[in-house]
Amino acid sequence: MRKLFAVFKREYFSAVRKKMFIIMTFLLPVLMVGLMILPSFIMVKGMGEKTVVVLDGTGRLQSAFTRPNEPTKEEKGAAKKPTSRRRSRLPTTMKVEYVSRDGDRNLDQTAKPYLDRLTGQEKGKGLDGVLLIPSDAIAADDSKLKYYGRSSTDFITQERLASITNGAVQRIRLAGKGIDSEEVERLMNRMDIEAVQISKTGEEKKGGAANFFIVFIFAAMLVLPSFIYGLEIMRGIIQEKTDRVVEILVSSMTPPQLLIGKILGVAAVGMTQISVWILMAVVGGLFATLWLSMANVSVMQYLSIATFGYFVIFFVLAYLTYVCIYAIGGAVCNSEKEAQQLIAPFTMIMMMPWFLMAPIITNPDSKLAVIFSLAPVFGPLTMFVRTIVSDPPVWHIALSVLASIATIAAFWWITAKIFRIGILSYGKRPTIPELWRWMKVA
Q: How does pLDDT run across 262-277, given as a tens digit for each residue?
């Protein structure tokens, strides 16, 4: 036990004393949050201002394409009424040139000069898109809008223009039935939806997009350190084999003692880092709670104390499950490149819950989610996600934990068998039949 503890201390203190460990412990959460927010920010900024020409064959939709800062007189009056809501307006990043072509049944021909501007290079006259509204858009039921653009995947602009056009056409149709314009606004009023999760005890909890992103952040915090520190164990074993240090170590202790000491030492490093992250999250949550409480918003409607407890449990289970694979890779290979090639297929399999995260989050009680949460290897990550977004039965959680413990015990037994022979093996990487023989001999 004393020798095992000596290995544990060496692995732990050699990692936590590094400057990079200290820097990344405090910087990685910031980077993770930034990676969640920055792409959306860049996407919005990167879209830039879109210049679109609208050729209106009805000649009656000009008010729908006014600038955002130029509400019509009707809208100004409607804004004063609490039961009215202003119609969907153009985004500030879209500049529209409206052209009325009342009764024009040949808009494709009329649009040719504007289509030339789509590919034109003349500064100040280029276009990003041309929208054609047919002359029978209001009267006919089967009319279709046509959008010409420089990009076939600019679906955001297409959908926004289609939404604004359809809203305006619907208002004109209702007005044509003799309905007052204010009544039209009331009838066309769009309701927002508020997602609420109901637990089995009847407790209400906030849902929606915010919960979706919170789950992704917690899932990343659970799975990424497991793979990062698994790689550290693999590299450490390979380095000790290369430097022949391992021969000295196994002369004074058994291979299982060395293996357990290394795994638990690096696990303690991961738990230290996770503890700091949880502390940072708690401190940040307290500030967020104070700030949001002024707006009558509770942070705990998205999270609960149990979430942090489940996080610790499933982090330990995930770590001990994944790290054995990397220990085997380090024991049977003689270089990091060989080990990465060997481990890559297993890593892809272990990452399957991450690749299927979206369907698991949106439907946590589906057969897919339940099977993955109870299956070996996949259980820790999938079950943790289910505990955040739903209220799984207690026996599901207990069975997932037991399955993970059984998997860890089996992996540790296999790892110890292979590690005992592989740690002193050099030269050609063993094949699968050879690994099977090692397990029987060890």
A: 777 777 887 787 788 7
Q: How far, CA to CA in Å, does 46 sit from each of 39, 94, 212?
A: 10, 13, 24
* Residue carrying the six token digits 């990043």: 93
pTM of the model: 0.65
The residues, any chain, with a CB within 8 Å of residue 212's CB and separated by 6 or more, are: 361
3-state secondary structure of 30: helix
Q: Which token pair is 209?
A: 């997009």
- Torsions phi, psi of 94, nearest 5? -120, 125
203-213 pLDDT, tens digit per residue, is 666 655 566 77
The answer to whether 58 and 133 are in contact (CB under 8 A) is: yes
Single-letter amino acid, residue 263: I
> Residue 93's pLDDT is what?
72
In 3D space, the residue among 357, 360, 218, 226 whose CA is nearest the CA of residue 285 turns out to be 218
Q: For residue 442, give Cα distances in angstroms to 15, 40, 57, 256, 322.
A: 31, 53, 83, 11, 22
Residue type, 157: T
- Comparing CA positions, the residue from 81, 56, 55, 87 lying closest to residue 175 is 87
Distance CA 383, CA 378 (A): 8
Find the helix or strand (DSSP H, E) in which 143 lies: none
Asked if the model's pLDDT at residue 36 lies above 70, the reply is no
The dihedral formed by the CA atoms of 142, 148, 149 and 151, expressed in degrees to the nearest 10: 70
Asked if 406 and 413 touch (Cβ cutoff 8 Å), the reply is: no
The full 3-state SS of 76-137, as one line of letters, equals HHHHCCCCCCCCCCCCCCEEEEEEECCCCCCHHHHCHHHHHHHHCCCCCCCCCEEEEECCCC
410-432: burial string, b at 16+ Cβ within 10 Å, e else: ebbebbbbbbbbbbebeeebbee
Residue 165, classed as helix, strand or coil, is helix
Cβ atoms 2, 187 nearer than 8 A: no
Q: Strands 129-133 and 146-149, how do they pair?
A: antiparallel
Query: Domains plus CATH for the chain?
Result: 2-38+206-441 (no CATH), 49-187 (3.40.190.10)
Q: Are 240 and 334 in contact (CB under 8 A)?
A: no
Supply the DSSP string of 203-245, one letter for each residue. Answer: -EEE-SHHHHHHHHHHHHHHHHHHHHHHHHHHHHHHHHHHTTH
For 66-109, what is each residue's pLDDT tens digit?
754 444 444 444 444 443 344 445 666 778 888 888 888 888 88
Q: How many helices (H) and strands (E) does the chain have?
A: 18, 6
